[in-house]
Design a protein that fits this description.
Blueprint (H helix, E strand, L loop, with lengths): L16 E5 L5 H11 L3 E7 L2 E6 L18 E10 L3 H9 L2 H4 L3 E6 L16 H17 L4 E2 L8 E9 L2 E8 L24 H12 L8 E5 L5 H8 L3 E5 L6 H4 L4 E4 L16 E4 L5 H12 L8 E7 L9 H9 L5 E5 L7 E7 L26
Parallel strand pairs: 5-6, 5-7, 9-10, 9-12, 10-11, 12-13
Antiparallel strand pairs: 1-3, 1-4, 2-3, 4-8, 7-8, 13-15, 14-15
Helix pairs in contact: 2-4, 5-6
The chain binds S-adenosylmethionine (SAM).
Length: 384
């Protein structure tokens, strides 16, 4: 979302640079997307998975800025970097920053070394980042600081970020947790990737649900188009959903044998519309052009027998430059009658994005918790 005039800073911007984290390999597409949407930003520094931009002095950003970007995993103010072979001295160096002292959380992580899923790499806090986090914790405990290390923050908390661009080169900065992903260390939710899954789609759908705020309830009717071998269906079944998987390819026996699963071994377009009659959540993960995926979903959603609450699409791009079509894909989804449409390159995505659209925004468990006004206890006297 772009910043509005009312967001303009009342205090001067804390720095002239911002940092952006993206998937390893997505840098060019991310730079283009951000500079198109924010003409006040110009490229400063770039490494795989890590970019900094200079903010124009004529058009500053507010302290709590948000970027209009589907490809940025997380971002914040960039305050500088430190380099040393000695991690303890870097910890001491970073800890003296004035923004460090008045933050609520500390997030420490390494930039992605590879594309997710390649060479066994999955996003999250690496063993090295964990070790550095422990060094910070030890120092914080000694000084009696309450800073919380590498945990999900609450909405609007102030987070100090340490990005290990190289093991001996750390860039640091801070941000306010104004988005759901902004509350996660490095913009990546803590998902246990050590569990056995039928495919990586299990992690992608787990993250999609956490990010979007969609909750799958036991008994919900879900359909997945492009369901083989079955990672996403595995997650849906674990959540107690009734699942139809549509795919001409074979499903894993563990999924096929599940009482709540039905396999329709066809292409999505060849399935009778009545099969979608009770569907609440429509999921699509086709290895096909994003426009084809949207058209396939549109034919189902537009049918008078069908009344889905929401769709969760994984849209795959044959080339990074094709990600420039994300705004058009979102418009196409909106035209199907959805009230809320969001798109994001999830940390667990590869050259793909997750597009979520819901008919009614109230089905989403929003990031900011609804705070009920406090009731006065009966015995309590009203304050004057
Ligand atoms: C990335 S895989 C899906 C992974 C799956 N969601 C999982 O959880 O394991 C893409 C699948 O799309 C299927 N597919 C491609 N075109 C299709 C179509 N028109 N209708 C249904 N499935 C299709 C392929 O057979 C392939 O199994």
């Amino acid at each position: 979302m772009a910043n509005t005039a009312s967001d303009l800073p009342t205090t001067p911007a804390p720095a002239s640079f911002i940092f952006v984290i993206c998937q390893n390999g997505a840098e060019s597409a991310t730079k283009l997307e951000i500079m198109n949407n924010h003409p006040n930003l110009s490229l400063a520094f770039s490494r795989p998975g890590f970019i900094t931009f200079k903010v124009s002095a004529e058009a500053p950003l507010p302290q709590r800025f948000t970027l209009k970007s589907a490809l940025a995993r997380t971002y914040g103010w960039s305050l500088g970097k430190c380099t040393s072979q000695d991690a303890s001295s870097m910890v001491a160096d970073v800890s003296t920053n004035v923004q460090f002292e008045n933050s609520n959380h500390l997030h420490v992580w390494q930039r992605d070394p590879f594309t997710p899923g390649r060479n066994g790499f999955e996003p999250g806090i690496s063993a090295l980042a964990e070790e550095v986090g422990c060094l910070f914790k030890t120092d914080l405990e000694k000084s009696g600081s309450k800073l919380i290390v590498n945990k999900e923050s609450k909405p609007d908390d102030k987070i100090f970020d340490v990005v290990m661009v190289e093991p001996n080169e750390w860039w640091y900065g801070y941000h306010f947790a104004s988005t759901v992903a902004g509350r996660w260390p490095g913009g990546t939710p803590a998902i246990d990737t050590s569990i056995e899954t039928y495919s990586r789609a299990y992690f992608k759908l787990s993250e999609a649900l956490l990010w979007s705020g969609i909750t799958i309830q036991p008994g919900d009717h879900c359909v997945e188009i492009g369901s083989a071998p079955g990672g996403a269906c595995q997650l849906l079944l674990e959540k107690g959903a009734k699942v139809i998987g549509i795919d001409p390819a074979e499903m894993e026996p563990g999924i096929l044998e599940h009482d709540n699963f039905v396999h329709i071994r066809k292409r999505g377009t060849d399935v009778k519309r009545k099969e979608f009659r009770n569907t609440k959540w429509l999921i699509s993960d086709l290895n096909a052009d994003p426009n084809f995926s949207i058209e396939t979903v549109a034919e189902i959603v537009n049918h008078p027998l069908v009344d889905v609450k929401g769709i969760i699409l994984t849209l795959k791009f044959s080339e990074w430059k094709n990600t420039s079509s994300i705004p058009d894909l979102m418009k196409a989804a909106k035209a199907l009658g959805f009230q809320v449409v969001k798109a994001r390159q999830l940390a667990f995505n590869r050259r793909e994005i997750c597009l979520v659209a819901v008919k009614d925004k109230f089905v989403l468990r929003l990031g900011k918790k609804h705070v009920k006004p406090k009731r006065q206890a009966k015995s309590e006297k009203p304050t004057p």
